[in-house]
Amino acid sequence: MKRYVDAVMTIPKGTLFPMCGMNLAFDRDLIGPAMYFGLMGDGQPIGRYDDMWAGWCIKVICDHLSLGVKTWIEAWDELNPPAANGIA
User: Fold this and answer.
1) Of 69, 62, 6, the residue nearest 31 (C-alpha)
2) Which residues are registered as beta bridge partners of 70?
3) What is the chain's pLDDT, residue by residue, as a tens digit (88 residues)?
4) What is the three-class DSSP state of 9?
5) Nearest to 61 by CA among 39, 37, 30
6) Cα gap 47→35, rounded to integer Å
7) Could you give the CA distance from residue 84 to residue 26 in angstroms, rounded to a whole number?
8) CA–CA distance from 68 to each of 8, 76, 87 (Å)?
9) What is the pTM of this model?
10) Main-chain phi, psi angles of 79, to 5 degrees
């Protein structure tokens, strides 16, 4: 049986991360105008990585504005098995 824990992690200032656009929340008053996903598909320069590119751009903008960026760690137990943490 796998045990999942909801976990949120703050991305350190100066660190980029590959944001996923499928499950995304943001304060549109603070950062909404900067949340732009590039065009994707044949003939477009970004290809299918538009959400990751948007994540890198938004992280640089948030760092500049001193705004925090959080991400969710979906499968904490996969990264930190309970036995390794002394949890039975």
Assistant:
1) 62
2) 10
3) 666 556 777 888 998 877 777 767 888 898 888 887 777 777 877 666 777 788 888 899 999 999 988 887 653 445 555 555 555 4
4) strand
5) 30
6) 18
7) 34
8) 12, 21, 31
9) 0.65
10) -85, -30
